[in-house]
Structure formats: C-alpha cells, structure tokens
Specification:
heterodimer; A: 6-stranded mixed sheet; 50% helix; B: Glutaredoxin; 5 helices
Chain lengths: 183, 178
Amino acid sequence: MLDMTSRLAVPVSARDHQEGPADAPVTLVEYGDYECPNCGQAFPIVQAIRRDMGDQLRFVFRNFPLTQIHPYAEHAAEAAEAAGAQGKFWPYHDMLFLHQDALTDSDLIGYAADLGLDVARFTRDLEDGAFAERVREDFLSGVRSGVNGTPTFFINSYRYDGSYDYDTLLAALQEAAAQATAG
Amino acid sequence: MTASTSHATSVVPAAAQTALPAGTRAPDFTLKSTGPNETTSLSQYRGQPVILAFYPADWSPVCGDELALFNEILPEFQRFNAQLLGISVDGIWSHRAYAETKNLHFPLLSDFQPKGDVGREYGVYDEQAGREKRALFVIGGDGIIRWSYVSPNNVNPGADGILKALESLQPARATKGS
C-alpha cells in the first residue's frame, strides 16, 4: 500500500506544522485542501487516529489547494498559515475543516476573531498574500513528491495509496511503527 | 509530417500489447477535441514537448483526480513549453461538459470512433473494459516518446514523473552558452 517509488521530495523539517513527538516511530504527512470534500471526510478519521496513536504518531499538514475547482481553497490555506504565524495553526486548521461550506474571506476573518487572534494583523496578512509563497512551496513540494489527488498521505515519507478509512489507515500506520521500532 | 488517422500506415503495430516505450516514434493522430479547433493532431505540436494523458473516463467521482491535478499544475508544464492533451473514449459532448465543470485549461481528445484506436496504437487500450488505461507519455519536440508510464489499477499518477521527463529534455538548452 506504500508506493516505494513516490517519496517526499522535501523531508519534514522545522518549517512544517506538526503535532506529536519529533522522534515518534511514524510520521504521517497529509497534503490537503480545506475546500476538498474528501479531505473533509478524512479529517475526523485523522483526528481519531492522532488521538488513538498518541505519542506513536507525528502528524504534519501541508497545503495542496486545487484552486481551479475550489475557489476558496487558496485563501483558506493562506489564512491557516496566517493563524500559524500567530501560534494558532492547529485550532484554525480544525476550524476550517469543521466549516468547509463557509470559507469566504469574511468567514475566514470571523474564525480568526473566534480564536482570539490579532484580527487586524490577520486581515492584513490575508489581503497582502503574505503567505501565498509559503502555500506555493507546499504545493510544489507535493507535486514533486507524487501527490496524486487530495488528500494524499505519506507514511514515513512514502506515498500511501490505500484507503483512508479508520481501520485501514490505522493498520498501515501501526505496521510502519512496528517496522520502524524493529529496524 | 501530415496528420493521419490512427489506422493509416504506421511503423507501429496497429495494436501494441504494452505501452510504447521511450525511444519510439509517437504515432500521429487526429481526433475531435475540446481545443480551439474541432480536431487536434499530435503533429501540430511539433517542436514542443507534448504530454499525453490517457484516462479511463470523464466524470470520475474523485474531486482531486488526475485531470484536476494536472490542470492545477499546468503552469509548471508550461515552463517547459509543454502541451498537455487528455485522451479517453468519451464522446466530445461529454468532454465539453466535463472540461467546463472542472474548469480544465487543456484540450480533451475523443478516441471515440473507431473506438480506442489511438489507445491501441500506443498500447494502452483495455480491450476487456472497453476504455483507455491510465497512462502517460512525454513526447519530445522531435516526435519521439521520451517517457511512458501505465498506472496500477485505481491509482492516479502524480506529476513528478512527467516533470522529471520534461527536465530530461532540457539539458541541451540549459547548457547552451556554457
């Protein structure tokens, strides 16, 4: 289920948004789009797996907005980065996936207010495209890594082509964890 | 080089069993398309790289599917002056509606009549399913296939292989003047 020919072109580093220990046996990287319904379906599954695997898992999210089919995806991605610049990437990320049907600029600014961010700074960052380059970097790293749709997952740097229902994805992650600790 | 229909005289067997490999001359074809003209021929892109993306069917249920992905990556392909062409056995009306829905900025070609002939020539037609396999070809400006790839069942290819192939066409240009 892991495609051994498609590897992360840009390894996980300090620039990434990550949760979980850096020395966890498994790192799950998701390339996703906040407006993509499939990513929305995957969101609670990933949440449950993060909760259930605990310290066994490090989770990383990178932006892969499909702007030609999802008109709000680019700004949503930039907004998450703007929230990240204020230390609130993950709460904002969750907020977007919980409100996939409301992603206009005014919605995005509203979520920033809800989370207690500096709204003036957030709005300025969004209007200036302060994080457009950062989103583009994520996108291009995904292209180079063989991202083949959204969401695309990488497990310990190899592309995962299996199903992302809870049981199947968890099994794949646990197998990778077993291999990592055995090796 | 004149545009010929797919079943005209060709140096390639009419129904290759496997995808034509790198180094093979790409068989020319003319098909109805959603492009600016009613038909599209491979030969009209002589002098620039062409990416042929054979795919099973329009209206895939996946939102971030192969064509939507490649559509998003078009600016990267254009850096190599490469033209992307999508090919399936769907009719032109399906292609038009699909291209409009997905906001596609590249032509979709209809390998509809005689059904699958171009796919057969490239060795990527699935006779049992009656549709194209999911396959990619990168063709150089000289009309020679430089890279080909058939995806495993139900796995969309990414664009990394295409970009690597396009880069490999570049060295002559990159070192010019050195």
